[in-house]
Write a structure and sequence with these properties.
mainly beta, four-stranded antiparallel β-sheet, single chain
Length: 117
């Protein structure tokens, strides 16, 4: 069983930055694809970015060049650095872990990011 603990959300002005963190407790982090998803108000959850155990990354077009996903395997933690935030980035951000060996999927509890003047 894997527990994902997120932190780093909050309120920020347009153009500002935030860094989200997600610590994976339990399980084998080395076989896990880590991802960040978000769910804007009234909309469906969408992929923001993901990173493989080998550190290959994939981003939604809307966040490319503004967001950076990274992972520290020694801390079993994934980060999402978000720059140049706009009100359109307002959402609940969820951490996801997909174990390539067991094919099990885990979700964090979500952290709110609000971008407002």
């Amino acid at each position: 069983q894997v527990e994902l603990v997120e932190s780093g959300g909050g309120l920020v002005q347009p153009g500002g930055s935030l860094r989200l963190s997600c610590a994976a407790l339990g399980g084998s982090f080395g076989f896990v694809v880590m991802g960040w998803y978000r769910q804007p108000p009234g909309k469906q959850r969408e992929l923001v970015a993901r990173i493989t155990p080998g550190a290959s990354t994939d981003y939604a077009d809307s966040v490319k060049a503004r967001f950076t996903i990274s992972r520290d395997n020694t801390k079993s933690t994934v980060y999402l650095r978000m720059n140049s935030l706009s009100p359109e980035d307002t959402a609940v951000y969820y951490c996801n872990a997909y174990n390539l060996v067991t094919q099990q999927d885990y979700w964090g509890q979500g952290t709110q990011v609000t971008v407002v003047s």
